[in-house]
């Protein structure tokens, strides 16, 4: 079984002021750095084969805490960035509603409000291509992907067989540093596991690995 563990980055300064970030490269707060250390502690009992993150520093710095504890290097990939919100980057909700009332009404219905940047479909295609590549490169292993709220919802939606707009209307954005997981099998993402089910998933995977290791080698060696 291939397990892709997912974590949103720790709290950034613009998370605190509730501003759209998109591709803006905002730093972690002190609380965000503490959340990253707590994430590393949460994963201390899980042997990871890779730690991959968005190249934006709020994600890369979160991933670095986990990688350091696992004696791994972080692989930073721009394809894991948040959706590009274009001219909405840096705006609060009130500011977006005042400047772009029609777009804001569209965003409240689950669609992009900005007329530049990326659509959610474009972001989804970009992110899933990267995540499936990670899964293929680490087949049968465990990798941690540290990304952003939008990409993680897109990955969850794919694992559930839903389109990203439907899932956005169903579920709020993941909290900072929240852990979840999906599995990869036969070229697709499957089996979304929320945080409280991850230990069970890891234990099941470990049992299957031990059982496979106990089998005699095949005639082909």
Summarize it:
The protein is an alpha/beta fold and 221 residues long.
The span between the termini is 21 Å
The coarse silhouette is globular
Q: Radius of gyration, rounded?
A: 18 Å
Strand order of the largest sheet: 3-2-4-1-5-6
Largest sheet: 6 strands, mixed
Query: What is the strand content?
Result: 15-25%
* Low-confidence parts: 217-221
Order of helices and strands: EHHEHEHHHEHHEEH
Please describe what this structure looks like.
The chain has 221 residues and is an alpha/beta fold. 45% of the residues lie in helices and 16% in strands. It has a 6-stranded mixed sheet, sandwiched between helices. Strand 2, helix 3 (57-70) and strand 3 form a beta-alpha-beta unit. Helix 4 crosses helix 5. The radius of gyration is 18 Å and the shape is globular. Residues 217-221 have low confidence and may be disordered.
Give the topology, please.
Layout: E1 2-8, H1 13-16, H2 30-42, E2 50-54, H3 57-70, E3 74-77, H4 93-99, H5 101-108, H6 120-137, E4 142-147, H7 149-160, H8 164-170, E5 179-185, E6 188-193, H9 198-214
Parallel strand pairs: 1-4, 2-3, 2-4
Antiparallel strand pairs: 1-5, 5-6
Helix pairs in contact: 2-3, 4-5, 6-7, 7-8
């Amino acid at each position: 079984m291939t397990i892709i563990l997912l974590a949103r980055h720790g709290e950034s300064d613009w998370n605190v002021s509730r501003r759209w970030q998109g591709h803006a490269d905002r730093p972690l707060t002190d609380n965000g750095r503490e959340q990253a250390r707590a994430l590393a502690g949460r994963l201390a009992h899980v042997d990871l084969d890779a730690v991959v993150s968005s190249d934006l520093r709020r994600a890369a710095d979160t991933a670095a805490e986990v990688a350091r504890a696992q004696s791994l290097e972080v692989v930073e990939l721009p394809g894991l960035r948040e959706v590009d919100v274009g001219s909405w980057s840096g705006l609060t909700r009130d500011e977006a509603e005042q400047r772009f009332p029609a777009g804001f009404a569209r965003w409240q219905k689950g669609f992009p409000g900005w007329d530049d940047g990326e659509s959610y479909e474009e972001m989804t295609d970009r992110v899933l291509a990267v995540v499936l590549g990670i899964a293929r490169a680490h087949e049968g292993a465990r990798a941690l992907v540290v990304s952003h709220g939008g990409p993680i919802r897109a990955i969850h939606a794919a694992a559930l067989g839903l389109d990203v707009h439907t899932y956005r209307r169903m579920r709020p954005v993941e909290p900072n540093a929240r852990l979840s997981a999906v599995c990869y099998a036969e070229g697709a993402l499957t089996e979304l596991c929320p945080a409280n089910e991850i230990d069970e998933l890891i234990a099941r995977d470990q049992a299957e690995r031990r059982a496979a290791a106990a089998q005699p080698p095949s005639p082909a060696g």
